[in-house]
C-alpha cells in the first residue's frame, strides 16, 4: 500500500525559475532560514572581532551584526540610494557600518550617524534614515534569520512555533558546545527539494549505499509527526556498530547521555538537515542557486577536548563523503528525469512516509505562504 495516495509534486515545482523565486521569498526569506554557525559568521580566532557579515536570506541581502553578545540583522541596503553595505559573504571588523558608495555611516544598532552634507539640512531627520532591522535568532550555535518583515511586525512568524518539538528531539545533544571538526561543500545539479526528499527516505539505500547498509539496516527508520516546521525520524545502528563510519567504530568523543544506538535524521525547514549520531552531528545546509542547482555545506560537528582542541572525525567524514556523493548522483539523475516531457509524479512507498510528509507541508505552503500551519 502506498502512503495516503500522496504523489510527488509536479515537475515544474522542481524546474521552474518562477517557483524557486517564490520559494526564496516565502519559504526562505519569509520563514526562518539557517545562516550557519555563529562561529562561521563571526570566527572567534579572528585577529580583531568581526562585527558584521553580509549574508543572503533567501532572496534578501542582509547584514548580520555582532556587538559583544548582541546579535542584530539589518537589510543590507543603504538608506541613501540603496547600495549594499558589504558584498555578500564578506565581513568587516569596523565598529560602524560604512556604505562604500557615499560614506553614509551607521552605528552597530543601525542608527544613521554620518551623512555628508545633511547635518546642515534642518529638514533631514537622521532618526528616520536608520537601517531596517530584521529578526535574527541564535539557537544552539546556529544563526537563523527572517528577512521579509522588520523586527516587531506582527507578521513575523514565531521562531518558537517554527522549531516546535524539533528542540525536544535534539535536546540530549550538546549542540551549542559543538565545533566544526570538518566541512565539505558541494554544488549539486538538483533542486533543493529533490535533495531534501532523498534525505528523508532509505528506500534507496539497498541499491546505492552498500557502505551505509553495513552499519545501519535500511528498514530501521521511524518517523515523527510532531509540531514545528520540520520532518524526520530516527534509525538504529546494527549490533556492534557504534556510529556511522566506515568501520562502525566511533569517529569522535561520544556525547554523554545520548542513545548509543540511534541516529536522528531531522530536517528543519527550509534548509537545515541535522543528522545526530552518538559521537558527532552532521549537518547539511542548503542554499538554492537555481531550480536545478543547490549549494550544500556539509559540516561534522564534534565535542572539543578539554584543552579546546577539535578532534578530526575523519572516519565519519570519509563515510559520509562517499554516501553524499552516492546521494548527489541519484538526485542529479532525478533532476534530469524531472526535465523529461514524460515525467509523471509517482506515488510514495510505505517507508517514504517522511517524503510524503515533506511534500504535504510544502504543497500546503504554496497555498498559505507558511511552513507552519
Ligand atoms: Fe549608501 Fe549613498 S548609497 S551612501
Ligand atoms: Fe541516501
What fraction of residues sit in β-strands?
25-35%
Give a list of the ligands.
FE2/S2 (inorganic) cluster, fe (iii) ion
Report the sheet with the most strands, covering strand number, pairing sense and barrel closure.
Answer: 7 strands, antiparallel
Poorly predicted tracts of residues: none
User: What is the count of DSSP helices, taking H or I runs of 4+ residues?
Assistant: 10
Order of strands, main sheet, comes to 12-18-17-16-15-14-13
Straight-line N-to-C gap? 27 Å
Structure summary, number of beta strands: 18
Helix and strand succession? HHEHEEEEEEEEEEHHEHHHEEEEEEHH
* Helix-and-strand structural type: alpha+beta
Question: Would you kindly provide a written description of the structure presented here, covering whatever features stand out?
Answer:
It is a single chain. By secondary structure, this protein is an alpha+beta fold. Helix content is 24%, strand content 25%. The structure holds FE2/S2 (inorganic) cluster and fe (iii) ion (FE).
Amino acid at each position: 500500500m502506498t502512503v495516503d495516495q500522496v504523489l510527488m509534486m509536479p515537475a515544474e515545482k522542481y524546474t521552474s525559475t518562477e517557483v524557486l523565486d517564490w520559494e526564496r521569498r516565502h519559504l526562505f526569506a519569509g520563514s526562518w532560514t539557517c545562516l550557519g554557525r555563529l562561529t562561521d559568521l563571526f570566527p572567534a580566532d579572528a585577529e580583531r572581532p568581526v562585527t558584521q557579515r553580509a549574508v543572503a536570506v533567501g532572496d534578501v541581502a542582509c547584514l548580520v551584526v555582532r556587538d559583544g553578545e548582541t546579535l542584530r540583522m539589518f537589510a543590507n541596503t543603504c538608506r541613501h540610494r540603496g547600495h549594499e553595505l558589504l558584498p555578500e559573504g564578506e565581513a568587516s571588523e569596523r565598529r560602524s557600518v560604512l556604505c562604500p558608495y557615499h560614506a553614509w555611516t551607521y552605528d552597530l544598532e543601525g542608527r544613521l550617524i554620518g551623512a555628508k552634507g545633511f547635518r546642515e539640512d534642518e529638514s533631514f531627520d537622521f532618526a528616520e534614515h536608520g537601517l531596517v532591522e530584521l529578526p535574527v535568532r541564535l539557537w544552539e550555535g546556529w544563526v537563523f534569520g527572517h528577512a521579509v518583515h522588520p523586527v516587531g511586525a506582527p507578521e513575523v512568524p514565531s521562531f518558537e512555533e517554527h522549531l516546535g518539538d524539533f528542540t525536544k528531539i535534539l535536546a540530549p545533544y550538546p549542540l551549542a558546545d559543538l565545533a566544526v571538526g570538518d566541512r565539505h561543500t558541494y554544488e549539486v545539479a538538483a533542486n533543493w527539494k529533490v535533495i531534501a526528499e532523498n534525505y528523508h527516505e532509505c528506500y534507496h539505500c539497498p541499491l546505492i549505499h552498500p557502505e551505509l547498509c553495513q552499519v545501519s539496516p535500511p528498514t530501521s527508520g521511524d518517523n515523527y509527526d510532531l509540531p514545528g516546521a520540520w520532518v524526520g525520524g530516527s534509525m538504529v545502528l546494527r549490533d556492534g556498530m557504534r556510529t556511522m563510519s566506515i568501520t562502525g567504530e566511533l569517529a569522535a568523543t561520544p556525547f554523554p547521555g545520548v542513545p548509543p544506538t540511534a541516529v536522528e535524521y531531522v530536517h528543519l525547514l527550509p534548509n537545515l538537515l541535522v543528522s545526530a549520531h552518538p559521537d558527532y552531528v552532521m549537518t547539511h545546509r542548503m542554499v538554492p542557486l537555481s531550480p536545478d542547482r543547490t549549494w550544500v555545506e556539509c559540516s561534522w560537528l564534534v565535542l572539543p577536548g578539554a584543552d579546546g582542541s577539535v578532534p578530526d572525525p575523519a572516519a565519519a567524514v570519509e563515510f559520509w563523503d562517499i554516501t553524499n556523493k552516492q546521494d548527489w548522483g541519484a538526485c542529479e539523475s532525478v533532476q534530469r528525469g524531472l526535465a523529461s516531457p514524460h515525467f509523471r509524479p509517482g506515488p510514495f512507498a510505505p517507508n517514504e512516509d517522511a517524503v510524503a510528509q515533506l511534500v504535504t507541508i510544502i504543497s500546503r505552503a504554496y497555498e498559505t505562504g507558511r511552513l507552519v500551519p
